Amino acid sequence: MAEILRIENISKSFGSQKVLDQVSLSISAGEIFSILGPSGCGKSTLLRICGGFEEPDEGRIILDGEDITRMPPHKRGIHTVFQNYALFPNMTVWENIAFPLRIAKAEKSHIRREVERYLELIQMSEHAGKKPRELSGGQKQRVAIARALVNRPKVLLLDEPLAALDLKLRQRMLVELDSIHEDVGITFVYVTHDQQEAMSISNHIAVLHQGIVEQEGTPTEVYEAPKNSFVAAFIGDTNFFEGTIRDVHGDYCILKIDGFPSLEVFNDKKMPEGERAHLSIRPEKFSVSLEKPENLPARTNLFQGRVEDVIYLGAQTRLWIRVGERLVSVVKQHASFALERKIRYRDDVWLTWHADNAYMLEDYRPSDESLVMHPDIGK
After folding, report:
1. How far apart are CA 223 and CA 167, in angstroms?
2. Residues 119 and 94: beta-carbon distance below 8 Å
3. Which of 20, 74, 180, 237 has its CA 20 to 30 A from that of 102?
């Protein structure tokens, strides 16, 4: 897909605090591109710079080949949906959606036609005469999106648009937002701190942390192949292991880990024998059983541990299993309501894990491990 928006070496400071540091991203026409990161990472500031509400200290914003860095917001061809919706309280739903077209002095017939089209698109035709105070949070959000889309911007910026909604409504609105995007085909740039939101709706994700882009890629790439320990810990849960490379054999090697059984791992970084390596293994990559499994595929690691905590979560159970000197986080999915005995606290269990189901990290920061440690064990 052709590039529609380029963020080029953007830096921004507020006083002595550097909020963005040489951020560069390329966003393709028609995609949903999410900027994901924790509070205070600079993602909303970056969105405001794209929208023209802040000026960068350095860098450029290029929209469809044109430098718009110093252009006022209303001339950019970029519209923004804010977290608080910013609807006009004295106007009806119909009037709110029509407002941008009236400002642009569009013909009355065009305004009527487009407003009716977007009311139908957001399934709000029967609420056209209501004021914002009469609407639910989800309805307000849909009206705000329709108003931002009605005069066809090249890019729509969405700044934490679902943050004020409860969980079930957020999940429903994600589906509706994806449907609206498919219908209108406009590029969405979506800012959120919620990993699940970003993973479920995006074509590409940029993970922002302390003003820099830690990683950019598809949801699958970012989740399955994190570049460093921050991304691995922030995008879902993970287990970190550190060890020394031993016995390199083809694409695989043995990772010798202090206080833990040695693991056969896929040596995707082609690391030589004797090097220190850091490994990320997602909890769902492990299989756990009460009985020792037999006839395992080649390159399957097998070790025994004891269950130290069990947390039932409905669709899955989270287990914390002591293996040697380490606690391992394991997720067991519930495919059916089986009659077999459930794994319980203090059970001795067997863990299996295939050598391909891990990823070696380019960068490991010890402080990031606190993001995945059990909150109660080890206090």
Report:
1. 22
2. yes
3. 180
For 97, the 3-state DSSP assignment is helix
Long-range contacts of 83-91 (CB under 8 A, 24+ apart): 83/159, 83/160, 83/161, 83/163, 83/164, 84/164, 85/132, 85/140, 85/141, 85/143, 85/144, 86/144, 87/132, 87/140, 87/143, 87/144, 87/147, 88/132, 89/131, 89/132, 89/133, 90/131, 91/131, 91/132
Tokens 């590039």, residue? 3
Q: Are 202 and 170 in contact (CB under 8 A)?
A: no
Tell me: do 264 and 132 sit in the same domain. Answer: no
Average pLDDT over residues 91-120: 93
Q: What is the CATH number of the domain that holds 14?
A: 3.40.50.300
* Residues 219, 238 share a domain: no
- Whole-angstrom distance, CA of residue 190 vs CA of residue 155: 11
| 137 Cβ contact partners less than 8 Å away, ≥ 6 residues apart | 164, 165, 169
pLDDT given at position 370: 39
pLDDT tens-place string over residues 236-260: 899 999 999 999 999 999 999 999 9
- Is the entire prediction scored with pTM above 0.85? yes
Count structural domains, the chain.
Answer: 2
Residue 378 in any domain: the answer is no
Kindly state whether residues 103 and 198 are assigned to the same domain. yes
Give the DSSP letter of residue 126.
Answer: G
103 CB-near residues (< 8 Å, 6+ apart): none
